[in-house]
Amino acid sequence: MKNKTALITGASRGIGRAVARRFAEGGYDLAVTCRENTHLLKELRAELTAEYGIHCLLFTGDLAEKETAGRLFDAIGETGRTVEVLVNNAGISHIGLLQDTTWDEWQNLVGTNLTAVYSLCKEAIPGMLWNHSGKIINISSVWGCVGASCEVAYSAAKGGINALTKALAKELAPSNIQVNAIACGAIDTDMNRFLSDQEKQDLLAEIPAGRMGLPEEVAHLVWQLAEGNDYLTGQVIRLDGGWI
């Protein structure tokens, strides 16, 4: 029997990389993607295949583009596998006033953070319907729940993911497919490396837990959602140390 397959987008670093490692540890074969850091995906594949003996498909491409998700699923299909778990993790941020945000910046951010989620879900659903089971887990943000000044585009895209999660969960529940989202707070990844030491200390002072979350903690929750209760669906779970 083949292992189950998990598709993890944005797996070259940070949360996506930690999620890929957790699923490999759990015996899943992987399909992992990035937009341009192919060398990091190759390093990840070498590590995981040597350590866990799993199959790992690499894919590089811009998932905001119309045809990319289809090409990705064609490549997965050529291996004879279907996707049992889809983890929509790839995302980018943009900080600045809305009035200063250009059309191209808006389109790029919404395309990467939200439109790609639509495209990947659309491609994954037929196989999950065939199997009468599946898990879709979307990596969102607390700013999609409450909004953030100077991150309007990012907040809008993540809010869209939260709404998509709730609606799609209702649509797919009769087919035994669960859809949930994790609304991350401040996680210690490259996305937050722009903070100065003082800005980081000010941020930590706002978080009751007194620290940033770790990518491995997000990965652990993704694993629990993938392997856990089939009655849990349509939820946006905040993982933020009590921040919001």
Features:
244 residues, alpha/beta, Rossmann fold, seven-stranded parallel β-sheet
**What's the CATH H-level superfamily name?**
NAD(P)-binding Rossmann-like Domain
What is the helix tally?
8
The stretches of 5 or more residues where confidence is low (pLDDT under 50) are none
Structural class: alpha/beta
Read across the widest sheet, the strand sequence of neighbours is 3-2-1-4-5-6-7
Q: What is the domain tally?
A: 1
- Helix and strand sequence: EHEHEHEHEHHEHHE
For the record, the CATH architecture stands as: 3-Layer(aba) Sandwich
CATH uppermost class: Alpha Beta
Task: Give a quick rundown of the structure.
By secondary structure, the chain is α/β, with parallel strands linked by helices.
Please give a structural write-up.
With 244 residues, this protein is an alpha/beta fold. It has a single domain (5-239), classed as Rossmann fold (3-Layer(aba) Sandwich), CATH 3.40.50.720. The chain is 47% helix and 16% strand. It has helices at residues 14-25, 38-52, 68-78, 103-131, 143-146, 152-172, 197-206, 215-227; strands at 5-8, 29-34, 56-60, 85-88, 134-141, 177-184, 236-239. The protein has a 7-stranded parallel β-sheet, sandwiched between helices. The relative contact order is 0.14.
Topology:
Elements: E1 5-8, H1 14-25, E2 29-34, H2 38-52, E3 56-60, H3 68-78, E4 85-88, H4 103-131, E5 134-141, H5 143-146, H6 152-172, E6 177-184, H7 197-206, H8 215-227, E7 236-239
Parallel strand pairs: 1-2, 1-4, 2-3, 4-5, 5-6, 6-7
Helix pairs in contact: 1-2, 1-8, 4-6
